[in-house]
């Protein structure tokens, strides 16, 4: 068992060198597939084999230096990070199909097809595909949250499930206004961010606030309008909040 493992490690290493050398050689023409987190991606190996050939070939799908899936003598093996959500579509360009995409799935995948030739396996075909995962924040929501004092209202702006790390700001007439509390949280497992922020305002005048969340080159925003009603007695104001959500790409 031990010697088999060592042999496997050795052959994998020499195979890696072949892959790396080929990658350097062909890396300019690499195709890019962009999918949303939690979605599905099919990465084409650009190669077809017939079912009866399957027993005589080895197929490897690898991401950078980690194995994803292998088909050796028709036996499919899927590595743990990809288990239960990854398969190879042999009838469709030997595609690697990954479901429930995670942010950590982003990277360059390489497909290698080896065939036997006089008893030893030779690289017959090699393709690399870059998988890019996007995680867009939904339009934030603003809720009327608390009444810290009769004159004050506290509103809460929040959104979650995006990447990269967001920055949140509140604007009124294009000027930044100070939030009470802004927190940015990253889920350690999914790497996705949640952001929320509180803003206090005085109900005795009209307001139009924009909650602006920027992440990478993108941003999403929501507008909260407050209309003070003239006839209300002081200390018992009833306003009308109006929300307008905007996503900017
Ligand atoms: C399979 O690969 C061929 C050749 O590159 C391409 O024309 C075809 O669209 C691919 N099929 C799918 C379903 O991706
Ligand atoms: C593989 O077979 C599919 C289905 O017959 C075809 O659409 C595709 O073009 C073939 N791909 C290659 C690389 O020949
Ligand atoms: C895949 O599914 C099987 C059966 O449901 C389960 O035993 C196994 O733990 C799962 N593996 C992973 C990595 O989730
Ligand atoms: C800010 O939010 C954090 C987490 O929600 C909370 O623990 C903290 O008490 C808040 N601080 C203020 C000043 O509201
Ligand atoms: C709200 O605004 C009114 C009128 O400008 C002012 O009298 C009051 O002190 C303010 N309340 C707070 C809590 O800032
Ligand atoms: C507040 O907004 C309402 C509706 O737009 C308007 O009728 C009212 O004059 C405004 N009040 C002040 C103090 O600007």
Automatic annotation (TrEMBL):
<dbReference type="InterPro" id="IPR036179">
    <property type="entry name" value="Ig-like_dom_sf"/>
</dbReference>
<dbReference type="InterPro" id="IPR037676">
    <property type="entry name" value="CD80_IgC"/>
</dbReference>
<dbReference type="GO" id="GO:0015026">
    <property type="term" value="F:coreceptor activity"/>
</dbReference>
<dbReference type="InterPro" id="IPR013106">
    <property type="entry name" value="Ig_V-set"/>
</dbReference>
<keyword id="KW-1133">Transmembrane helix</keyword>
<keyword id="KW-1015">Disulfide bond</keyword>
<dbReference type="Pfam" id="PF08205">
    <property type="entry name" value="C2-set_2"/>
</dbReference>
<dbReference type="GO" id="GO:0006955">
    <property type="term" value="P:immune response"/>
</dbReference>
<dbReference type="GO" id="GO:0002710">
    <property type="term" value="P:negative regulation of T cell mediated immunity"/>
</dbReference>
<dbReference type="GO" id="GO:0042110">
    <property type="term" value="P:T cell activation"/>
</dbReference>
<protein>
    <recommendedName>
        <fullName>T-lymphocyte activation antigen CD80</fullName>
    </recommendedName>
</protein>
<dbReference type="GO" id="GO:0098636">
    <property type="term" value="C:protein complex involved in cell adhesion"/>
</dbReference>
<dbReference type="GO" id="GO:0007166">
    <property type="term" value="P:cell surface receptor signaling pathway"/>
</dbReference>
<dbReference type="InterPro" id="IPR003599">
    <property type="entry name" value="Ig_sub"/>
</dbReference>
<keyword id="KW-0393">Immunoglobulin domain</keyword>
<dbReference type="GO" id="GO:0042130">
    <property type="term" value="P:negative regulation of T cell proliferation"/>
</dbReference>
<feature type="signal peptide">
    <location>
        <begin position="1"/>
        <end position="29"/>
    </location>
</feature>
<dbReference type="GO" id="GO:0071222">
    <property type="term" value="P:cellular response to lipopolysaccharide"/>
</dbReference>
<keyword id="KW-0472">Membrane</keyword>
<dbReference type="InterPro" id="IPR013162">
    <property type="entry name" value="CD80_C2-set"/>
</dbReference>
<dbReference type="InterPro" id="IPR042711">
    <property type="entry name" value="CD80_IgV"/>
</dbReference>
<keyword id="KW-0732">Signal</keyword>
<dbReference type="InterPro" id="IPR007110">
    <property type="entry name" value="Ig-like_dom"/>
</dbReference>
<keyword id="KW-0325">Glycoprotein</keyword>
<dbReference type="InterPro" id="IPR051713">
    <property type="entry name" value="T-cell_Activation_Regulation"/>
</dbReference>
<keyword id="KW-0675">Receptor</keyword>
<dbReference type="GO" id="GO:0009897">
    <property type="term" value="C:external side of plasma membrane"/>
</dbReference>
<dbReference type="InterPro" id="IPR013783">
    <property type="entry name" value="Ig-like_fold"/>
</dbReference>
<feature type="domain" description="Ig-like">
    <location>
        <begin position="140"/>
        <end position="221"/>
    </location>
</feature>
<feature type="domain" description="Ig-like">
    <location>
        <begin position="43"/>
        <end position="127"/>
    </location>
</feature>
<dbReference type="GO" id="GO:0042102">
    <property type="term" value="P:positive regulation of T cell proliferation"/>
</dbReference>
<dbReference type="GO" id="GO:0031295">
    <property type="term" value="P:T cell costimulation"/>
</dbReference>
<dbReference type="Pfam" id="PF07686">
    <property type="entry name" value="V-set"/>
</dbReference>
<keyword id="KW-1003">Cell membrane</keyword>
<keyword id="KW-0812">Transmembrane</keyword>
<dbReference type="GO" id="GO:0048018">
    <property type="term" value="F:receptor ligand activity"/>
</dbReference>
